[in-house]
Amino acid sequence: MPRRIQAALVCGGQWHDFDYARLELLSELAAYEDVHTSVYQDYEQLGQLSSVNPLITYTCNVMPSEQQCAALSEFLAGGGRWLALHATNSAIVPAAPDADHLFSTPPLRGNLAELLGSRFLGHPPIAPYTVRPSTSDHPFTAGLGPFTVTDELYISALHPPLQVLAHTEFVGESTGFAEGHTTVDEPRPVLYLKQHGAGSVCYFTLGHCRGRYDLADLGIDDLGVVDRGSWNVPEYRTILRRCLRWALTGQPASTPG
């Protein structure tokens, strides 16, 4: 007999339009008649993971406790699939008043960086950049060539082994951040898989979005514009849908779309 898929979506945090991201993700999930999605703003509300698979997260500056990290480890070891989107790997705090930067990115709690495969360090100012599939024979990127996005380009500390499926290049400053300044020209992962026992994490760094009033806590009352980042880029949507299919079924799409 068909069994209903119980998905959990954690979507919340700072400096992004989480209402928009939540609506878009739920709209994609609604295409699956056998999926029921519970929605949370943080890991504290998430509770037990024993009845959940997959876990989908779109957060910024939302960190699980060490106890919750242990539960996430158990979830993955037991075969859980975790689709981690955009700033899930970020912890960001204001710098000291006399610092030469605005933000610091301290270590993540517990073993979260090792679970996710990366820890956010910083990003340069938002500007167009090219994303390149790292392989042509994986279902997540099959049929796709290089494409351009205007999004946050994440510089992260990596925790291999990672199966990198798409990447970009960047050398320069992560303006405003204490870390994330690069002098080495090497691929920067945008999409990757990391295995954990019987389970795995798929991390996709694209998907920035911001409304006019999402930086009010930084003293910017009205940005005057709405930023949808990669959400209007067809290749982003294609990859996101394939990642969601993998998260829900364990099987990535075998054909483009």
Short description:
With 257 residues, this protein is of the alpha/beta class.
Provide the low-confidence segments as ranges: none
Q: Summarize the amount of helix as a percent range.
A: 10-25%
Bin the strand percentage.
Answer: 25-35%
Tally of separate helices = 5
Largest sheet: spatial strand order: 2-1-3-4-13-12-11-8-9
Beta strand count: 13
According to CATH, the fold-level topology of the domain at 5-93 and 106-120 and 157-168 and 188-249 is Rossmann fold
Can you write the helix and strand succession as a string?
EHEHEHEEEHEEEEEEEH
Considering the chains and any ligands shown, give keywords for the structure:
single chain, 257 residues, alpha/beta, Rossmann fold, nine-stranded mixed beta sheet, 19% helix, ThuA-like domain-containing protein
Structural summary, described in words:
The chain has 5 helices and 13 strands. With 257 residues, the protein is α/β, with parallel strands linked by helices. Strands 2-1-3-4-13-12-11-8-9 form a 9-stranded mixed beta sheet, with helices on both faces. It has a two-stranded antiparallel ribbon with strand order 5-6. The chain has a two-stranded antiparallel ribbon with strand order 7-10. A hairpin with an 8-residue loop joins strand 5 (93-94) and strand 6 (103-104). The mean pLDDT is 94.
What is the secondary structure topology, with strand pairs?
Layout: E1 5-13, H1 18-29, E2 35-40, H2 43-46, E3 55-60, H3 66-77, E4 81-85, E5 93-94, E6 103-104, H4 112-116, E7 118-122, E8 127-133, E9 147-151, E10 155-158, E11 163-169, E12 187-196, E13 199-204, H5 234-249
Parallel strand pairs: 1-2, 1-3, 3-4, 4-13
Antiparallel strand pairs: 5-6, 7-10, 8-9, 8-11, 11-12, 12-13
